Amino acid sequence: MAKLTESMTNVLEGDSMEQDVESPVTIHQPKLPKQARDDLPKHISRDRAKRKIQRYVRKDGKCNVHHGNVRETYRYLTDIFTTLVDLKWRFNLLIFVMVYTVTWLFFGMIWWLIAYIRGDMEHIEDPTWTPCVTNLNGFVSAFLFSIETETTIGYGYRVITDKCPEGIILLLVQSVLGSIVNAFMVGCMFVKISQPKKRAETLVFSTHAVISMRDGKLCLMFRVGDLRNSHIVEASIRAKLIKSKQTTEGEFIPLNQTDINVGYYTGDDRLFLVSPLIISHEINQQSPFWEISKAQLPKEELEIVVILEGMVEATGMTCQARSSYVTSEILWGYRFTPVLTLEDGFYEVDYNSFHETYETSTPSLSAKELAELSNRAELPLSWSVSSKLNHHAELETEEEKNHEDQTERNGDVTNLENESKV
């Protein structure tokens, strides 16, 4: 029993050591909706499932790129407005409060210095003395007067007198600079609040992209939808293939971007996004998927970035939503489940089935191989291989019959000639 326990311990330790050597980092799979998890094909290998995928664009649309070693940081200050708008909310609010506080303190200090230099602090109880600002008896009261001046509150307790020209000049300067600060900071807050980034949260993309036959042609498809009743005006869709390549000269281009045609020349890329739409890319000779087959697809290291943009109907501001599909999220031989149904007087969209797919009969060959096979057999791509074989068999049978008929006719002609000779 002890030997058995020891052997089991050794086996477990050996397995754990092998596992540590092969995959030292445990990769947690992302949480997907139930229908998305059910749609994963069963034949995906374990190596492919465990392989870590480095995305260029995450599923939520954020770019997975960090800028490092930026030495010319002064360029951010040349466009300070955009820099402030791009900051996170906590930093933006902190700067908002700090700018106003520093401004009030700065001008409060100047008001206190004027009163101190003129000697107003020494004649506080003297009724015959005309101060620069009445009822200003210290730095705190000067700070409060600065706030009242810049925000134009005007409580009426502290008032500037006409015997202080330097105070009048400072009042003009603070009023002008205060208006500039208000315009700048309120403008930053307004732009940040009205940014259409949150509008993109209601623009959804399907969890997977699919490859199947459509109208006799092999197509790559994905689905987009808008959850709001207010529509996206002038909506358009684009797609990019992110894949590293090496040129014929030996130059290595990391993350090379290639356009994927989703209807640019036919106008199909301009969408009327009232209900979910399936965006289709025909895999032809100009497509980067021309030579990729079902068996080769899992071996490819590529990423498809899709970009949906348009104007928000309520505000008129441009909105952009992004998502991406890596190799493991492209299902070969699947189609999307319909989500639009006709009810009593209206159409209803079932978003519970938005990500659902179902398996369909699709050739495992690449589009190039299908085209070569079609040209060789002179048959449409939608025909199956079995139908092509049956067609070839029928052609061979007809040729044999024609050959036999020709042989019989030749034999009859020969017999006639022999009889005529006799």
From TrEMBL:
GO biological process terms on file:
potassium ion import across plasma membrane; regulation of monoatomic ion transmembrane transport
Site feature location: Role in the control of polyamine-mediated channel gating and in the blocking by intracellular magnesium: 182
Here the segments flagged for biased composition (Polar residues) are 412-422
Q: Would you say which domain of life the source belongs to?
A: Eukaryota
The annotated topology with respect to the bilayer is: Multi-pass membrane protein
InterPro entries listed in its UniProt record? Ig_E-set, IRK_C, K_chnl_inward-rec_Kir, K_chnl_inward-rec_Kir3.2, K_chnl_inward-rec_Kir_cyto, Kir_TM
The Potassium channel inwardly rectifying transmembrane domain is annotated at 57-196
Transmembrane residues, as ranges?
93-117, 129-147, 167-191
What does it catalyze? K(+)(in) = K(+)(out)
Q: Where is the Inward rectifier potassium channel C-terminal domain?
A: 203-372
Where does the record say this protein resides? Membrane
Using the UniProt record, give the first listed, main subcellular location. Answer: membrane
Q: Which Pfam families match?
A: IRK, IRK_C
Q: Where is the composition biased (Basic and acidic residues)?
A: 391-411
Q: Does the keyword Zinc-finger apply?
A: no
- A GO CC term? monoatomic ion channel complex
Q: Which UniProt keywords apply?
A: Ion channel, Ion transport, Membrane, Phosphoprotein, Potassium, Potassium transport, Transmembrane, Transmembrane helix, Transport, Voltage-gated channel
Region of interest (Disordered), ranges: 390-422
> Which GO molecular function entries does the Swiss-Prot or TrEMBL record give?
G-protein activated inward rectifier potassium channel activity; inward rectifier potassium channel activity
Asked whether the UniProt record includes NADP among its keywords, one would answer no
| Family, as annotated | Belongs to the inward rectifier-type potassium channel (TC 1.A.2.1) family. KCNJ6 subfamily.
Protein name in UniProt: G protein-activated inward rectifier potassium channel 2
Q: Which organism is it from?
A: Monodelphis domestica (Gray short-tailed opossum)
Per UniProt, what is the name of the gene that codes for the protein in this document?
KCNJ6
